[in-house]
Fold this protein.
Amino acid sequence: MELKIKAVSPKIGKEIPTPFYATPGSAAMDLHACLDQPITLLPGGRTVIPTGIAIALPSADYVALVLARSGLGIKHGVVPSNCVGVIDSDYRGEIMVGLYNSGESEYTVQPADRIAQLMVVPVVQAQIQMVDELDETQRGTGGFGSTGK
């Protein structure tokens, strides 16, 4: 599968790294903050950070997901504001990352900081069928916590 990446900022490949897989076993590539100056997120604050890139997925058989960087989330409480960003196959605009500071301290995003991960995964578009009843299962309608701890 080929992923086309377009630099929408002249900083890409110079001041800001082009996305790449860090190791042969990496499932996602890091997205970097394409900023002219640092941005400070106050506790409870939200902001949108540009990445300086746009992508072209080859077909509706794929979606790109913007995911948290575990270290940023665990160490600082800074995570994507919408939990997981969905980049549809027909979107061609710049990838922007909404960040939320759930921590107790200010966090400053510096230019070129790694702020999120981009993962490309296959998609199955379901054929919708409205029905009056659903198949029975052992779990049934048991929801949150119904399967134990």
User: Anything to note?
Assistant: The mean pLDDT is 95. The chain has one domain: 4-122. The radius of gyration is 19 Å.
